[in-house]
Design brief:
This protein is an alpha/beta fold. The protein is 32% helix and 19% strand. Helix 4 packs parallel to helix 9 and helix 8 runs antiparallel to helix 9. It is globular and about 50 Å long.
């Protein structure tokens, strides 16, 4: 495996999940980076883990670390920069409530043979891994009842996939609307891959995601938007840019299971309303943007996409300054 880093952000003391991640990282020679925040404990000691407190983050040479808001998931961007600075060629990300299975530590390959969806529609990828009615957080609600293509209708192709989304068993990443309406747990089938190409939309999250170095510039998480939409809106932007580089987004079997942290579902519902109302509008706006092909244009394309979301008044205008700082730090590393 290429030099690999595992990134999470947490305000908890070392818990069983983080201990499991640390043990696996040590065994598999993975750099495990935990990004804290102002609410993190004063002392954080975990063998196999590099923990960065809020105070330590401010001492870094990254301009972004001093500008990104506190108490926000967007601080995870600092972990990405640290991993790249340390020479990572492959990044794994998850959260502090996802237990890794043995398969989580398996080698990753950017080249894949997979069933491929290409077409102008929202594709509910979860339906191809279980016979239960379920959808991923961020899926456009107005498309939930649309008939999905048959599983055996997808052609099998050799693809390049620099972003790969693994699923999560037991308590998968679904929105508050689902949690308030349908029962859990749900676990997924383990013998299927599905790649999304041009025109096929499905949100992916940050709970079990593999990023190859070709896609590192697409990892940026926005800070001036709803907390529950930060990784979802990142995913739409990443997908739009993948198309122009003949890359695919891969969904694969679950390699973690979630013992979900305590949540207030009504607060989650409130925070997801901007997505419920605007996710379909966002992807239509992104489809209409002039996106350039070529890895040298990745950062420019990302900025263009976020400017569109600012113009839609869904992301705060301060995001543009912040994203420029992140890319300046990224350029200084490279």
């Amino acid at each position: 495996m290429e030099k690999t880093a595992l990134i999470i952000t947490s305000i908890s003391a070392p818990n069983p999940v983080m201990k499991s991640l640390a043990e696996g990282s040590l065994k598999n020679n993975v750099d495990f980076i935990v990004i804290g925040d102002t609410k993190s404990p004063d002392k954080f000691e975990l063998n196999g883990c590099d923990f960065y407190s809020y105070e330590e983050q401010l001492k870094l040479k990254f301009k972004f670390a001093k500008e990104v808001p506190t108490r926000h998931y967007g601080r995870k961007n600092i972990g990405y920069l640290l991993a790249i600075q340390n020479g990572a060629e492959l990044m794994l990300e998850t959260d502090d409530d996802n237990f890794p299975r043995a398969s989580f530590w398996a080698d990753r390959n950017i080249q894949q043979k997979s069933a491929v969806s290409e077409g102008d529609y929202w594709l509910n990828t979860y339906t191809y891994f279980t016979d239960k009615f379920i959808w991923p957080r961020g899926f456009s609600l107005e498309h939930l009842q649309q008939i999905q293509p048959a599983k055996d209708s997808f052609p099998i192709k050799d693809i390049i996939s620099p972003i790969q989304q693994g699923l999560a068993d037991e308590n998968p990443d679904v929105d508050a609307m689902f949690r308030l309406s349908y029962p859990l747990p749900v676990s997924f089938e383990k013998d299927f891959n599905l790649a999304l190409g041009k025109g096929s939309w499905c949100p992916f999250n940050s709970q079990n995601t593999t990023w190859f170095k070709e896609a590192f510039p697409l990892m940026y998480l926005p800070s001036y938007c709803s907390f529950r939409m930060t990784d979802i809106w990142r995913s739409f932007i990443a997908q739009r840019i993948l198309w122009e580089n003949n890359w695919h987004l891969l969904f694969h079997n679950s390699t973690v299971w979630q013992d979900r942290n305590e949540h207030n579902l009504m607060k989650d519902f409130e925070d997801e309303i901007p997505g419920y109302l605007n996710n379909d509008r966002i992807v239509k706006t992104l489809e209409d943007l002039d996106i350039k092909s070529g890895e040298q244009y990745l950062s420019d394309n990302v900025i263009k996409c976020y400017q569109a979301l600012v113009d839609m008044e869904l992301v705060g205008k301060d995001e543009i300054k912040l994203i420029h700082s992140w890319y300046e730090d990224l350029a200084s590393i490279n």
